[in-house]
Every structure is written in C-alpha cells, then in structure tokens.
Amino acid sequence: MGKIILFLFCSLFIFSSVSFSQKKILGFSSLSDTIETSKNGAFLIPLLYYTPDTRWAAGAAGVYYFKIAKKDSTQLDTRTSNIQLLADYTQNKQADLWATWNVFVQNEAYLLKGDLRFRNFPDKFYGIGNNTPVSQLEKYSYNLIQIKSMFLKKIKPDLFMGFDYEFEKEYGFKYTSGGRLEKGTITGFNGGIGSAIGLVGVYDSRDIIINAQKGTLFELSTYFFNNIVGSSFNFFNINTTYQKYWNFKKNHVLAFQFKNKLSYGNVPFLDAATLGNDDILRGYPKNRYRDKHFIGTQAEYRFPLFWRFGLVTFAGVGDVFGKPTDLQWNLLKYSVGTGLRFVINPLEKLNIRLDYAYGREGGYFYFMVAESF
Question: 334: how many CB neighbours lie within 10 A of its CB?
Fold first, then answer.
C-alpha cells in the first residue's frame, strides 16, 4: 500500500507542471470590461490510486484560483477565490463528480459558496452509534444529486451573514440481503428528497483560503429540512466550525480546528453526523461511525523541510453520539498522524498532501490536493 501511495505522489509531482494563467475569470466573463485578474491560474492533474475500499481508481482533480477586483484596485482588499473540481471512477464501479467554490466578489462585498455533486458510490453501513462493531458491516449503494448555494453579505470587515439553500436527492438504493437497511428499520433507508433553507454567519479573517497561514474562521449555520420546502423528512441541524491559525515563524504554522453537528427530529441516516474522512479525525473510514450528533477537535503543526517539500504532524479527538451520556472516555475516537507536503503554487501556497493517520482500528493513507482545513 505504501508503495502505491508513493507512486501516486511521484505521479502527481510530475503532472504538477500543468499549471497555467488565465485571461478571464471562470463564470464572470461578463465583467471583463471592468475586472482584471492577477494571481489567477489553474492546476489540473490526473489521479491514479488504490485503496481496499475502491481497488484501482482513476480520474482527475483541479483547482482554479482567481481574484475579482476593479482595475484601479490594489487587490489587497480582496482575497483569492477558488473553484475545486474532482472526478473519479473506481474498479468497484464507484463514480463521483464534485465541484465546490468559494468566491469573494470585489472588495469582499459578498461571499458566494456552494457545492454541486453527483455520486454513485457503493458504501458501507455499520449501524447507528459510537460503539458499532466491524462485524456488523453491511454494504449498500445509492445515487446522490446535491446542490448547495450560499449567498453571504459583508456586514463589516471579515464578517458575513446570509442564506443557504440545500437540495439533495438520494435514489436507486441496493442493499445487502437480509441487512437492517433492507428491512426498513433505519430512517431514510430508501432515500428521498432533502430540501432545506439555512441561516449562516461567517467570520473569516484568514489570509489565504486554500492554505491559511494566520487568521480565524468561525462559521455558524442551521438548516431547516421541512415538507413545506419539498423535503421528505422534517428535521433541523446546527453546525459550528472554528479554525485558528498562528504563524509564529516563516512558513511554520500551528492550526487548530473545532467542529460539531447537532441534529434534531426525523433524521435520515445519510444526513446523520459522521466521523472520519480526510478532513477531521483522519484514521477512520468515512461513515465508519454515525449518529445524530458529532463533536471533534484537532490540531496540526505545519513546517518546511527543503525546497517545496514540507511536513505536518497532527492529532485529534472526538465522537458521534445520540445523547450526551453516550460520550464516554473509553469510546472516544482519537487520531494521530503525520504527512508530507509538496507546494504546487508558492504564491497561493497550494499543496499536494500525503497523510498517514492512525486511530482505534488501525491506520489509513490520504492523498489530496489542498490542506485538510
């Protein structure tokens, strides 16, 4: 496995030369008479990787980054925006098409964020709760269409408030014969439509969105899924993200993150809080644990090695739970690990990262573009 990941890292290093500047801003060409772009460009690489869950997989990933500013502006008052794209297909017939964007309009008067995703991805279900055994594993597959569109207005420097709309449709379910999902005892076992209106507040003083060196991000949101707006389920959730970055020496960064998700009502299992993935509490498969609520935190120390290479060390702890009494010291999930970085674009500090994280049930490799948080 390690040799495969190393091969992937070397391949991406070679293809990192596919980087180019742009004359127009993607999606904003109508503003070309009043807007100019500097510090803009794109990065596109082929992907080839292997994991026990996917077997061999191939695809492409890219990041388009740009600035929107008036021609007479120094652009110092507008941070770099980015659009990230990912497409892959695996030997297990898993497909994922995903676009996400984070756009600062000139002078940061508005912040536009969103996601567009299609997924056909056989997955694993271990049950609900933070103490589900691996032996309880059952497989299922489904299709997902998801759209999120967030519109935020600047209230004062670095502070944005606004609305979000989320639409998701899950359909085409197939299950392990005789499993709990097939029996229909789990909420949302047969999919449906999730439609929600969200209220969002964001304080964001980070210097670089893709890879912050200093600053703070605090985001608070609540989403109301209801039949009135076309949802198959009635529930709401509250989400909190806090991230802090300290740059105490050139290119030496200490990063801290806290996240929680609290859900109430008739919550389908696909919308429940989960633990694991490549962003927080690395070292656990995505969706290994799920329940109504999640709380977790992690810290990461990032520092240079030589040339464009860097190293990180990280540690985190957290868990999912249905009620506060489910949180027990002997069940808390920990994550420790280290990772290698290669800087693709020094100006915007865009990295390729290779992480190895170890948790309660063993270790996992992660290879991604851009930092985990």
Answer: 16
pLDDT value of residue 369: 73
| 157-179 CB burial, b ≥16 within 10 A, e <16 | ebebebebbbbbebeeeebeeeb
Structural domains for the chain: 2-369 (2.40.160.50)
- pTM of the full predicted structure? 0.80
- Which residue is listed with tokens 């670089």? 208
Residue 92 is predicted with a pLDDT of: 78
Report the C-alpha gap between 259 and 241 in whole angstroms: 5
Determine the pLDDT at residue 271: 94
Give dist(CA 337, CA 317) in Å, integer. 12
Q: What is the rounded CA–CA span in Å between residue 131 and residue 331?
A: 7
Torsion sign, CA atoms 298, 293, 274, 147: negative
| Tokens at 20, concatenated | 């180019």
Q: What is the pLDDT of residue 229?
A: 95
Query: What are the backbone dihedrals phi and psi of residue 11, each rounded to the nearest 5 degrees, phi first?
Result: -60, -45
pLDDT value at residue 70: 63
Can you give the three-state secondary structure of the chain, one letter per residue?
A: CHHHHHHHHHHHHHHCCCEECCCCCCCCHHHCCCEECCCCEEEEEEEEEEECCCEEEEEEEEEEEECCEECCCCCCCCCCEEEEEEEEEECCCCEEEEEEEEEECHHHCEEEEEEEEEEECCEEECCCECCCCHHHCEEEEEEEEEEEEEEEEEEECCEEEEEEEEEEEEEEEEECCCCHHHHCCCCCCCCEEEEEEEEEEEEECCCCCCCCCCEEEEEEEEEEECHHHCCCCCEEEEEEEEEEEEEEECCEEEEEEEEEEEEEECCCHHHCEEECCCCCCCCCCCCCEEECEEEEEEEEEEEEEECCEEEEEEEEEEEEECCHHHCCCCCCEEEEEEEEEEEEECCCCEEEEEEEEEECCEEEEEEEECCCC
pLDDT score of 41: 82
Mean pLDDT over each residue of the chain, to the nearest integer? 84
